[in-house]
Amino acid sequence: MTDVAPSPARGQKPAQGEPVIDRGLRLLAAFGPGHEALTLEQLSARADLPKATALRLARRLIDWGALERHEDGRFVIGLRLLEVATLSPRGHGIRSAALPAMGELHRLTGQHVLLAVLDGNEAVLVERLSSPQAGKVLFRVGGRLPLHATSVGLVLLAHAPHDVRQSVLAGDHRRPDGGRPLSEAELRGRLANVYREGVAIASLDRPEPMSSVAVPITGRQRSVVAALAVVVPTGAISMAALKQPVIAAGRAVSRAL
């Protein structure tokens, strides 16, 4: 098998032998929070591809439905990707089973209810129920959350494969809100508590102080497949009072799976 060549310098032709699919994926990866709509120049720059190559690939992706183009010429993600994404058993499948219990937690709290799954060394948010009265949070559906600094992340990390835990423990523990990062020893202690108690509690101070309680969701053979959490303004509701409703909801979702 031929090794994949490194990305070309901006403005140069893609390296000979680089698979077209890799270039197409780089094009899709150019989109992200704050970069939902891109001009051709921005798309070319963020994907590190020549403009002609970016345009040719973008047109093919538009034909398939993975991209769309606005009247002003900017590119956006197409609905076909959403259609395909809903087929993911770790996303839509778990989400469908979790929605009734999530709805009940949302009714009780009026705040954010999150459902996340493990993906590599991060958590991916597959569903979030919110309301206009809910506090501000950093994460969106489809967004990625750090495992070491969020309640759903701590739950998933506590039950993650050994190599994932070791990688995160040895990695960067900076918090998304700029707070004091945990040392490796502190993080190990927190994970041990989460594994033993089956509940994780975490707080972030920005964009405003919010605290959350998360529990594991188990599938077949009791393996942890997701984490469910409620996020509320810090101090608004006792974390101890939130534990039992969240635990009950987590058990209901696990039974549904």
Search tags:
six-stranded antiparallel beta sheet, 8 strands, disordered N terminus, 9 helices, 257 residues, single chain, two-stranded antiparallel ribbon, alpha+beta
Q: Could you explain the architecture of this structure?
A:
The chain is α+β, with helices and mostly antiparallel strands and 257 residues long. The chain is 42% helix and 19% strand. It has nine helices and eight strands. The protein has helices spanning 20-29, 40-47, 51-64, 79-85, 89-109, 151-158, 162-169, 184-197, 239-256; strands at 67-69, 75-77, 112-119, 122-129, 144-146, 200-204, 210-218, 224-233. The strands form two sheets. Strands 5-4-3-8-7-6 form a six-stranded antiparallel beta sheet. Helix 2 (40-47) packs across helix 3 (51-64), helix 5 runs antiparallel to helix 9 and helix 6 (151-158) crosses helix 8. The chain starts with 19 loop residues before the first helix and ends with a helix. Mean pLDDT is 87; it is low at 1-12.
Please give the order of strands in the largest beta sheet.
5-4-3-8-7-6
Total strands: 8
Q: What integer is the average pLDDT?
A: 87
Tell me the quaternary state.
single chain
Unreliable stretches: 1-12
Could you give a short account of the major beta sheet? Answer: 6 strands, antiparallel
Count of helical regions: 9
Helix content: 40-55%
Which structural class do the helices and strands define?
alpha+beta
Radius of gyration (Å): 21 Å
Order of helices and strands: HHHEEHHEEEHHHEEEH
